[in-house]
């Protein structure tokens, strides 16, 4: 099959922290860093194939085992194991597109996934929420909505996620109200949990109504994505298999991400953990292509390590960065888009959270990732979504977005004329060359305070976390939701009311 490659060719000239000023389409101009030589990468690849051939992967879904069996894999109804012929597996994966386009509700909210395109998503899935005013607490629907408002507010964020779990909403109807909030407070592509077939179908229907298109037209574009986590080591459960199948049939994007923490759910060595990650990713991606050849999929890398003294996950470590570099190499070997994450293990939006996130982002971005999940707001190893960390991360992401913009080197930027305006030992502040570029010469910070110590103390000496809180509160206070046609809103509300009367969704495969 000919592999589809679409290229945008469009980027913005600079990053912005002003909401609504631009829609960033970012291309990474730097060659990705390789962790392993070609021979070493091939050894990981072959180890993965041998693992899937000789041991296989346990698949708890009878429906998925049936798909695998019909495609030529060896299945056992006694052990629930599925084993793959290597040639069959690789030929199946070749059907996956190397790039695809995602579309939001607003016409301009589209971007490419794959090639050297780079998109940022928010934190996804924590059960807890924190801010300076009220500390750490269980997530609610209102805190979820606040994070949606923040995601809509900053154009460096391309994708929304389930940013915190609204535990005040009953589970059978939680997805209905979450998806309604997504389409009324944002106009960007979004995430849908694979938490059962009814919940997936309900969420897709709400997105379709908000888009104002019929089922056939909806299926022609990618509007949303899900994340499927293998139950590492070497297992796919029923809900995850159902998610792969449903998203493949709906032609919506699926990110297959093994949860491989070296020393716990994967071998303690990085190559061993990566071989397992690769095997699990290939098995899940193959299922999507068996169900629907050409379905949009993304190779997910999440390999990190644990604290061997406590078993606690560790993120933003040198090992995480090395695994991110290597995962990018593996994804490119199979010509698949690559997802990784901005993660940290800090319990507060402090220096540790910043330097671990910075390490994670460097590993992800210079490893060639296409989708950076958990880009803004992640704390406590993914257990908490922090309002202040959200703003701190936005600053960091905007700096990376600015870094990705090309530097033009020509007669004008070489500033030859400026040298004619200054005397040796003078300065360039007042030259015409400087004044013409005064507002656009450099990145404009959202959060950073570059004032001197005396000015800083006169203003109250607040630190970055406190400034982040002030910025967030102002952004939330000034928030204006994107327009949504009232007829669509009413149709969505009628659909939700109908589904609530029916008892909501059964969270089963």
Coarse structural class: alpha/beta
Alpha-carbon distance between the two ends: 31 Å
Give the number of DSSP strands. 21
Largest sheet: 8 strands, mixed
Walk me through what this model shows.
The model is unreliable at 1-21 (pLDDT under 50). The two termini are 31 Å apart. The chain has 509 residues and is an alpha/beta fold. The protein is globular. The chain contains 17 helices and 21 strands. It has helices at residues 38-54, 62-71, 86-93, 141-153, 171-185, 197-211, 215-219, 238-250, 270-291, 318-333, 351-366, 387-404, 416-419, 432-435, 453-458, 464-477, 486-501, and strands at residues 26-27, 57-59, 74-75, 81-83, 99-103, 110-114, 117-120, 128-131, 135-138, 190-191, 224-228, 235-236, 253-256, 261-262, 297-300, 304-306, 313-314, 338-341, 371-373, 378-379, 384-386. The strands form 5 sheets. It has an 8-stranded mixed β-sheet with strand order 1-7-19-18-15-13-11-10. The protein has a 4-stranded mixed β-sheet with strand order 3-4-2-12. Helices cover 42% and strands 13% of the residues.
Compile the SSE list and pairings.
Layout: E1 26-27, H1 38-54, E2 57-59, H2 62-71, E3 74-75, E4 81-83, H3 86-93, E5 99-103, E6 110-114, E7 117-120, E8 128-131, E9 135-138, H4 141-153, H5 171-185, E10 190-191, H6 197-211, H7 215-219, E11 224-228, E12 235-236, H8 238-250, E13 253-256, E14 261-262, H9 270-291, E15 297-300, E16 304-306, E17 313-314, H10 318-333, E18 338-341, H11 351-366, E19 371-373, E20 378-379, E21 384-386, H12 387-404, H13 416-419, H14 432-435, H15 453-458, H16 464-477, H17 486-501
Parallel strand pairs: 2-12, 7-19, 8-21, 10-11, 11-13, 13-15, 14-16, 15-18, 18-19
Antiparallel strand pairs: 1-7, 2-4, 3-4, 5-6, 8-9, 16-17, 20-21
Helix pairs in contact: 1-9, 3-9, 4-5, 5-6, 5-17, 6-17, 8-9, 10-11, 11-12, 12-16
């Amino acid at each position: 099959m000919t592999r589809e490659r679409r290229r945008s060719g469009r980027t913005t000239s600079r990053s912005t922290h002003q909401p609504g000023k631009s829609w960033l389409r970012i291309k990474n101009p730097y060659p990705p860093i390789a962790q392993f030589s070609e021979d070493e990468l091939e050894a990981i690849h072959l180890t993965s194939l041998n693992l899937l051939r000789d041991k296989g992967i346990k698949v708890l879904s009878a429906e998925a085992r049936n798909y695998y069996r019909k495609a030529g894999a060896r299945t056992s109804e006694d052990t629930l194991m599925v084993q793959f012929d290597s040639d069959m597996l690789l030929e199946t994966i070749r059907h996956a597109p190397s790039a695809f386009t995602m579309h939001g509700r607003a016409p301009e909210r589209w971007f490419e996934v794959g090639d050297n395109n780079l998109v940022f998503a928010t934190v996804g899935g924590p059960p807890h929420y924190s801010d300076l005013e009220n500390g750490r607490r269980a997530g609610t629907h209102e805190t979820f909505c606040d994070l949606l408002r923040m995601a809509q507010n900053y154009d460096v964020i391309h994708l929304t996620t389930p940013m915190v779990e609204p535990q005040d909403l009953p589970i059978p109807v939680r997805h209905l109200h979450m998806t309604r909030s997504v389409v009324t407070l944002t106009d960007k592509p979004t995430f849908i949990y694979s938490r059962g077939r009814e919940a997936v179908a309900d969420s897709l229907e709400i997105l379709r109504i908000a888009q104002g298109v019929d089922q056939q037209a909806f299926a022609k574009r990618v509007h949303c994505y899900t994340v499927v986590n293998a139950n590492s080591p070497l297992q796919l459960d029923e809900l995850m298999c159902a998610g792969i199948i449903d998203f493949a049939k709906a032609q919506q994007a699926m990110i297959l991400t093994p949860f491989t923490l070296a020393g716990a759910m994967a071998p303690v060595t990085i190559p061993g953990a990566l071989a397992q990650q690769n095997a699990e990713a290939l098995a899940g991606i193959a299922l999507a292509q068996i169900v629907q050849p050409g379905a949009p999929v993304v190779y997910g890398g999440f390999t990190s390590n644990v604290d061997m003294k406590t078993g606690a996950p560790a993120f933003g470590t040198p090992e995480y960065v090395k695994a991110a570099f290597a995962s990018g190499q593996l994804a490119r070997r199979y010509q698949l888009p690559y997802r990784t994450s901005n993660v940290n293990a800090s319990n507060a939006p402090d220096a540790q959270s910043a330097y671990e996130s910075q390490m994670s982002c460097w590993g992800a971005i210079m490893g060639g990732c296409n989708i950076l999940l958990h880009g803004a707001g992640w704390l406590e190893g993914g257990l908490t979504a922090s309002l202040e960390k959200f703003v701190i991360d936005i600053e960091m992401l905007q700096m990376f977005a600015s870094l990705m913009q090309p530097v033009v080197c020509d007669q004008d930027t070489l500033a030859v004329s400026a040298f004619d305006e200054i005397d040796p030992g003078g300065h360039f502040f007042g030259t015409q060359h400087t004044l013409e570029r005064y507002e656009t010469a450099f990145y404009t910070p959202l959060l950073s305070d570059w004032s001197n110590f005396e000015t800083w103390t006169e203003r109250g000496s607040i630190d970055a976390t406190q400034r982040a809180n002030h910025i967030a509160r102002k952004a939330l206070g000034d928030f204006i939701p994107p327009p949504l046609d009232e007829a669509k809103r009413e149709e969505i509300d009628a659909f939700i009311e109908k589904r609530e009367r029916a008892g909501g969704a059964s969270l089963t495969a």
